[in-house]
Amino acid sequence: MKIMPKSTKEEKFRWIKPILDKEISIKDMAKVCPFSERSLKYWLAAFKEYGIEGLENKSRRPKTNPRETPIRIKERIVELRKEKNECALKIQWDLEDKGIGIHFQTIQKIIRREGLTRKYRTRKIKYNYVRIPLKRGELIEIDVKWVPDRIKGQRCYQFTAIDCGSRWRYLQAYNDASNLSAIRFLKELIAIADFEIKAIKTDNGSCFTNRYTGYSKSSDPLNPRLHPFDILCQELDAPHYLIDPGKPQQNSFVERSHRTDQQKFYDQLIFKSFEELKYKLRLWNMYYNDTKHCGLNGLTPNQALGLF
Fold first, then answer.
1. Does 15 share its domain with 106?
2. Model-level pTM?
3. Residue range 173-202, pLDDT digits in tens
4. Residue 21: domain span
5. In this structure, are strands 240-242 and 200-202 parallel, antiparallel, or unpaired?
6. Are 294 and 87 a contacting pair, CB within 8 Å?
7. 123 found inside a domain
8. Do 151 and 258 belong to one domain?
9. Based on the structure, what is the number of domains in the chain?
10. What pLDDT, on the 0 to 100 scale, is given for residue 221?
11. Would you give the DSSP letter of residue 24?
12. Please, what is the average pLDDT of the chain?
């Protein structure tokens, strides 16, 4: 009973063994063998020099490439990926600032080869939204994010305002998420922003509106009692828009920035006091406004403000 070869090297050895035993010549074997005479000679030479291991299939990939990315640039790409956890496009912009030209798809291959990408990634459905370019101050999204860890047993909150046109942000930390904190934050935003705020959009939190908490309790349902935040917006002549309940996607800019805050700020720092939180949050706000954004085609929020 004939035993089938279990590997390619056993298959090659089966064809050259009669030649080694001088039972048949190479030319005659080439007539009945599915391989060429040149292959048989190559296998014989490899077997005589390296033995059975010389018949193992070898990669045809070239050992050198004149257009290969230099090793120092590869190391720098890996360093930037581990240090900042940025996408390939942002790494390309960082390298361009240092005079290194490399395509972002090449960077993607390098970080994928180094195992620095997510192993399990769900494919999302992409929709072609029609986005109207906004000018600075045309729409400001405001939201509240609670600080993940308590500081000395007390819960702290981060108020965030982002300009939808330039992605410029203003952050401030408070001990509570009350109406007073929301009003104080809006007044600080107006004082620090060097542009006019024309409209504001928030969620339906109780610190921004009493749409779901106070309207039903009003003595006159047709003229409900306005929230202090709404009254301040009216004094500023800035419309106050509310998103639909349970639809945080409609506050997409500020919600996406909160994810960046969680990954690159709160997950990496520990705060011992409320004053330390406010100080580091201010530094992080300055760093964010000087960071290049894919949505701005490589510009920083401060640079985008200058274009408008």
1. no
2. 0.74
3. 999 999 999 999 999 999 999 899 999 999
4. 8-55
5. parallel
6. yes
7. no
8. yes
9. 3
10. 62
11. S
12. 89
